[in-house]
Structure formats: C-alpha cells, structure tokens
Amino acid sequence: MWYNTTTAAAHSSAGFFMIIPVLAIAGSLAKKKIVPESAGTFPVTGGLFAGLLVSTILTRRRSHIFSGA
Questions:
Q1: Domain residues for 20?
Q2: Is pTM, for the whole model, over 0.70?
Q3: Overall average pLDDT of the 40-59 stretch
C-alpha cells in the first residue's frame, strides 16, 4: 500500500511540475506582438510547408520504429 501511494504521489506531482514551464511558455508566446510578414518569413499556408511537415513526421516515426524504442 505504501509503494502504491508514494508512486501515485510522485506521478501526480511530476505532472504538475511539468505543466508549470509549459504554461509559462504559452503565456510568453501569447503576449508576443504580431510581427508583419517580411521577405524572410517562411509561409505556412502552401504546399512546401505541408510537404516538409509530413516528411519530418514520417522520418521521425520511421527512426523511432527502427530504433526499437
């Protein structure tokens, strides 16, 4: 019973300690000013972005499957 209780407490507290930095990052990003697009802005609405995103996801998935993890 002691092991189950302490493991549950550690698991719960770890979740709360993980969410605090995530919420801090989200708050920081929400407060950022919107910057107008310029010549160096990478467009995220076209096919190039979609292709890069899908290829990155598939590559990461394949490397995860083949690594045995």
A1: 1-32
A2: no
A3: 92
